[in-house]
Structure prediction request, 1201 residues.
Amino acid sequence: MMNGQKKRGPRIEPFRHRVETDPKFFDKSWKKLHDAIREIYNHNASGLSFEELYRTAYNMVLHKLGPKLYEKLTENMKEHLEEMRTCVEAAQGGLFLEELERKWNDHNKALTMIRDILMYMDRTYIPTNKKTPVFDLGLELWRDTIVRSPMIHGRLLDTLLELIHRERTGEVINRCLMRTTTKMLMTLGSSVYQDDFERPFLEVSASFYSGESQQFIDCYSCGDYLKLAERRLSEESERVSQYMDVKTNEKITAVVVKEMLSNHMQRLILMENSGLVNMLVEDRYEDLTRMYTLFNYVPDGLTTIRSVMMSHIKDTGKSLVTDPERLKDPVDFVQRLLNEKDKFDNIINVSFNSDKSFLNALNSSFEHFINLNNRSPEFISLFVDDKLRKGVKEANEDVLETVLDKVMMLFRYLQEKDLFEKYYKQHLAKRLISGKAASDDSERSMLVKLKTECGYQFTSKLEGMFNDLKTSQDTTQGFYASASDLADYPTISVQILTTGSWPTQPCSTCNLPPEILAVSERFRSYYLGTHNGRRLTWQTNMGNADIKTTFGNGSKHELNVSTYQMCILMLFNSSDVLTYREIEQATAIPAVDLKRCLQSLALMKGKQVLRKEPMSRDIADDDSFSVNDKFTSKLFKVKIGTVSAQKETDPEKLETRQRVEEDRKPQIEAAIVRIMKSRRVLDHNSIMTEVTKQLQPRFLPNPVVIKKRIESLIEREFLERDKTDRKMYRYLA
Amino acid sequence: MYTPPTTSTRGRVRLNVGGRVFETTAATLAAAGRDTMLGAMVDASWNSGVHDDPAPAEYFIDRDPSCFAVLLDLLRTGDLHVPPGLPEATLYREALYYGLLDRVRSARLGGFDPDRLRLASSVHGRSPGDGVAIRAAPDGGCCVSHGGASGVVRVYNWMLQERRPVYYPSHAPVNDAAYLDASTLLLAARERPGRRDDDGGVSSFSALTGETRHRFRVAHDRQPRSFTATALAFDGGCDVFASCKGRINEYGVAVWDCNTGEQTGFFYEPPGCALGEADRLQWLDGTNTLMVATMFPRTDSSFVSLLDFRDKSVVWSWSDVGTPASLEDKHAVDAVATEDGRSVCLVNQYDDLGFLDLRKNAASSGGVRWRSRSKLATMSGGKTKTKKAACGEETCYPKLAAHGGRLFASTGDAISVFSGPDHVMTSTLRCSNGGAICDFSIGGDRLFALHGEENVFDVWETPPPPII
Prediction:
């Protein structure tokens, strides 16, 4: 038998030397290790020889006793741990965690030394047999024997949670002990930490914050509640950084956010007297910042804030633009809009982190309510008119510039930009003709703004107006240079307005006084002499004049009046008393204008140049007028009510609207033709959307109008309906 | 009376190893690491009672002193010098005792230098069939796959001691092997007609014990099917790729998670590419693509494709289908992507090297730039021919590898090394016995060359650098 083995000997792995197996070999060796492990656990390792123990373990593995050794080791460590468990279980009250910590340190130290002894087994037997390495085995045993033992498991968790609860209610606890304990759980594996501590911790936290939030939301204002939530969040973060795993931070934050914020989101934001709307109204930047930061954590939090803010802006805006009180003063109306815009711009910039989506919400809200009032375009133009007239008073042009920039923001919200254009043109014309345009630079800068916003087309006519004035000045100079005998006539200044560039007014020429007529005719022949093929018509309804007057009482004044008024006053050079009918015949001024002129000459308080008989407000055909000899004024120059740009009366409004509608027709037609020319064939709905899209920058076309335009184009044979599909249109070249 | 320790003795350690006394410092021993026997021995936790002892600490170790001398020298200098007459196996055994085997390994195999390779040993196998493929393990070991119906793969550790062989389940013939790490071996096996449903395929094994870890299964329409896997590769993460041909002709490349063995994808073969029976798969780190090369004579034409698995697209492909026959019937028989990821190197049956530019579209680049007819190994030309004839054409086609910026090509019974941007031949590795080289592999600081005859493989290593 022995011989047979010897023969196979050399072929066996080289270092597995066969020794005479001592039947007691394992028991003897194991006893050695067993005793050593006991000494190690008893802190009495100084007498042990590491080399001897290592060699003993090595020999056991070499003799294929690895499995048995591993089994014995497991058993033995378990016994030691059970002893430790008894000690930990016996620890009273607050000493429990300390005892656990002490035993944990002991076990760790011992485990390191045990691993040292069994290093050879760790390297050879363990990997080939898929066993847990000694150190990890020690941790597993600690977990199962101590941490998860029935007497300790619940108590450990309760102790930890109790301490955290006490810390939350303001007590100071031993954080160091907490740290070592949670660290122990983490060392035992992330699943141990999560199952035995983190999950219950999050559950308990959820119920704690749920209770706290219920309690506080009833008695705190929104702002104070949010302060509390913010403080709680930072406390929890700090707690995690002090004695928990970093990964817990995200989870506990989510819990606090859910319990304190998400669950009460609607109630907090809409809280009466202190919610979001109040904060917005009172510009409480700090509270708003806090709300934004906190609800950023909440799913849909910012969306909710945004929509509440939007409906608030819409509501306040709507009441602003529809308040009949406000309609009385257009400048104030626009100023209020601008103030509102500034307010929310500030809030978004300061408190909402300049959030793009909030800015968009602000814009869309403004767009919504500004267009609720169809007079907004007019008012905005009036506001600009006011600013540009008074430009000089606002000494600083930069200030004016920023105001204009802000107005452009409002302009962008307008849907009916063509209506604004119309009004702006009118107002600009009046400013230019009456010479009230305060600053040429500001006017031009406004034009540039409109141009960049709406393109060249929008402003080309406005620019034409400026050019007309410039050439008029040159022409007038040329006129006076051309003849020397003009000094005898009253001085005139002629503004030649190109038809089409200026807002068209029904032209009704009045009879000019002969002095003026003569010089006007001279000018006409001069102008037509220098420009071939032109027509010149006098717009007597738009001019003004300065007249030197000597009243009966001897007082001398220079009266600044309109051309119509001049015509009337000149009549009194030749007669003392004139009836209304006589004046009407002599001047041929349209009755409405004439009546208005006479009213302003005779009835304006302090500026009664004429006397009316009888002294009633209404003017009848037989009423007579005479020069008021008792006219007095502190000023030498007296300005008689030139009608300045004012908001329109209702019939005027209707008229402008009609004109705008009329102007839109060719634009809609042009758009239809442009689209059809490129697409050739298109169905009805697509035309509608395309046309609307093309014209959106200027106005929102009415579908009914588009339909009518299409029909008109079909009539004029630009388009035809498809013969089979009536909804399709075909372009006819 | 207390005497303070003098500088001469502080930190000094006296070791009595098997009767011979060595004196060294605790620092030298601690440098071996806390996870070694010597490191633990001098650690404070085992020396709590001897703090105040002024005399050098003394330890007795009941081991062979001559081996200890070598290992202490290793700890002191980092060099491994084995005096003649000391058997390597004994040294390794002692190193394992002290927990220093990894140190010995890295000192023994330190630094692979393609220009200074020396034949370290030739290992004779004991398998019935000739070896067909050899793969180097990352730690310096290797495995040899044997043809025939045995499905056996012989596994060697870095000390070239043979471990338990790996048998593919039901002994399916193994086509390709790859080391996922030093202790995990992947095998791709051929499915045999008429066997049960889970024949062939891809599996991972413990390289230490030969046990199966995972079967990597392929499902089509949620139905697991048996398949033949021809080539393997894995990326830097946890994806394993294999070129697969299913029983009902499902051709393509399958992807698995190497940790779980779960299939995570399947790239079905598009027209114009050959993916299902590739000779070589190679993961290209730089472009995150997988090179799939299918070569003559497995197919009539040769194909090379780059696959991007993120969007399941073929980002580059080449084939010699339709190449004019006038080119003396040159067929690419192996392909490897160069390490810079810019080109693919090919070799044909006449041992010519050719290159494909990956940065250009394959169609526009004008196909393969074959190097002018320079026999790689002109000296042995005639000899190779006869050998080839003797051992059969198939086993002796040239093979390629790219490593450390060099290209390696096996031609006949030699391996040529090409260096530099122009791939100039800089050295030739030849060992006369064993006949033509049928496969070779580089890894773990070694080059392994498997010969087509006599069941022998050569191990080439870089000797320690000169002292000065």
Notes: Chain B touches chain A through 26 residues (CB under 8 Å). Residues 3-7, 376-395 of chain B have pLDDT under 50 and may be disordered. Residues 149 and 173 of chain B are 6 Å apart (CA to CA).
